[in-house]
C-alpha cells in the first residue's frame, strides 16, 4: 500500500485575492507584429487546431514558440513583464533569489463569432499570460474566477498566477491572442 492510498485530501475553497497585472505593449509594436505574422505562418504550417478547452476557429500548437522564432520577442517581453510582476507580489528580485522565469508553453488562438474557452487554470505554471494582438470592440472579455471580467484591447498583456481560474464567454467580435505559461527555474547563481 502506498502513502497515496493512506492519505485523504479534502478540497476546500478559500476566498483570496490574487493579483492580476495589466500591461500595455502598444509602445513596442515589433513583438506584437512579429507574433501576428508567426500566428499566420503557424496556421499555414499547422492548419489543424490543437485539441483543448479553447473553442476557437484556430489554435496553434502548444509549443509554438519552438516552431516559429518570430514569437521570441513577445516571449522575451512577457518574461520581462512577469519579472516586474513577481517583484510586485514578493518585493524581491527573482535573480537575487537565484530564480528565472522561462516560457514553457506558447500558443496562439483566433476567436471569431460564438467562439469561447471553458473555465480553466494553468497550474502548475507560476504565471500565465495572454497578449492581445487583435481585440474588436465587441469581443468577449476574459473572466477571472467567474466574477471579474477584463475587456481586452489590442496591445494589452495580462499576467496572472497560473492557479487563477479564467474563461472566455462566447464572443461577438474577433480577438486574436497569444497565451504563455511561465515556470520558475533555479539558476544556482
Which terms summarize this structure?
single chain, alpha+beta, six-stranded antiparallel β-sheet, 4 helices, 23% helix
What Rg, in angstroms, do the CA atoms define?
17 Å
The side-by-side strand order for the widest beta sheet comes to 1-9-6-11-4-3
Assembly level: single chain
Topology as a string of helices (H) and strands (E): HEHEEHHEEEEEEEE
Measured distance between first and last alpha carbons: 41 Å
> Overall pLDDT, averaged?
93
Annotation field: number of helices = 4
Query: Which percent bin holds the helix content?
Result: 10-25%
Beta content: 25-35%
Coarse morphology: globular
User: Low-confidence runs (pLDDT<50, min 5 residues)?
Assistant: none
SSE order and pairing:
Blueprint: H1 3-6, E1 21-24, H2 29-45, E2 54-55, E3 58-59, H3 64-67, H4 72-90, E4 99-111, E5 116-120, E6 127-135, E7 142-144, E8 148-150, E9 156-161, E10 166-168, E11 175-186
Helix pairs in contact: 2-4
Describe the 3D structure.
With 189 residues, the chain is of the alpha+beta class. It has helices at residues 3-6, 29-45, 64-67, 72-90, and strands at 21-24, 54-55, 58-59, 99-111, 116-120, 127-135, 142-144, 148-150, 156-161, 166-168, 175-186. The strands form two sheets. The protein has a six-stranded antiparallel sheet. A five-stranded antiparallel sheet has the order 2-5-10-7-8, with no helix packed on it. A hairpin with a 3-residue loop joins strand 7 and strand 8 (148-150). The longest helix is centred in the middle third of the chain and has 19 residues, at 72-90. The chain is globular and about 45 Å long. The mean pLDDT is 93.
